[in-house]
Amino acid sequence: MQIRFNQVAVAALVAMGSVAMAQETVEVRIGHVGPTSGGIAHLGKDNELGARLAIEDLNAKKLTIGGKVAVFKLFAEDDAGDPKQGTAAAQKLVDSKVHGVIGHLNSGTSIPAAKVYSDGGIPQISPSATNPKFTRQGFKTTFRVVADDVHLGGTLGKYAVKSLNGKSIAVIDDRTAYGQGVADEFEKGVKASGGKVVGREFTNDKATDFSGILTKLKAAKPDVVFFGGMDAVAGPMLRQMKTLGINAKFMGGDGICTGELPKLAAGTMGDAQVYCAEAGGVEGEAKKSMDDFKAKFKGKFNVDVQIYAPYVYDAVMVMADAMVKAGSPDPAKYLPVLAKTSGYKGVTGTIAFDNKGDIKNGALTLFTYKGGAREQVAVVR
Prior knowledge:
Distance between the termini: 76 Å
Helix content: 40-55%
Low-confidence stretches: 1-5, 8-21
Order of helices and strands: HEHEEHEHEEHEHEHEHEHEHHHEEEE
Strand content: 15-25%
CATH superfamily of the largest domain: Response regulator
CATH topology of the largest domain: Rossmann fold
CATH class of the largest domain: Alpha Beta
Shape: elongated
CATH architecture of the largest domain: 3-Layer(aba) Sandwich
Keywords: Amino-acid transport, Signal, Transport
Protein name: Branched-chain amino acid transport system substrate-binding protein
Number of domains: 2
Structural class: alpha/beta
Pfam family, one: Peripla_BP_6
Family: Belongs to the leucine-binding protein family.
Radius of gyration: 24 Å
């Protein structure tokens, strides 16, 4: 009887040990930085929600990394779209020993923050920074999952001339790394396509009065006005163009290509008057995965996707996939695997990185607005 009891006790202890081993976990700290305060907070919050949804889905999957169940935690920071605050947020995440960072939203914050992450050995994937300089600083830790401004601005410049028949084109930028960068590439695209730039003006990313520069440009009689900047500035600019009687078509990059733009323009946008491009795009089979994501996002948060939440989601997933393949969340161990990412099937399409950390074969989606809503024109690669 005593022998039987000992056998049962031993068996119970072994079983308990097996359960304990099966439940051994590893904490994975993922940082996210975006402007969740300030004029473009709606875009920063959109990105952060994309990260939160990804973290929730990863934890539901109970992924194992190195034989341990991974418990993902999000460390979210606000950079307010300001470069100084952005580098401070980056340093805070490095000091918190996060295993990877998704962000920042803006090129102006992503570019200086990239050095902080590089110095800390922390992989960074931006879902939306499009300035070419971002991945050309020589840092091995820097990646992005969208096409850059060379592609975006150049494509829009060609579209303005060839498809919108722009004869006289004016260009305005907000002097940020993103705004000036995309405007420069747009201007190059216009000239390469045989178009004429009749004026180049600038403002800033917090301006509300554009009467001076718009009055000056009105004298040049542009049929297309391009703005390099964000929707918070583009909306009031559209209103003032209407007041001044400038009936030109209005164009911009991904910064204005949001669901909020019609509200910010206060009903002054006519159908097919505004054209923009999103630095990403899905077509064919991938369109269904994107539509499904948007429905899931709306059901979870009761808000519509603005622009880049799906790209944030994919960035988190790609990072986690590299950790799983490397068998460790240690940045030094999974970074080489992340750099070799090729053929990852995400919500936004197939993700693969080149030797600079740029996405290979990045797509652009051209949009216009009709009835106060975005309408896709074409996906361009």
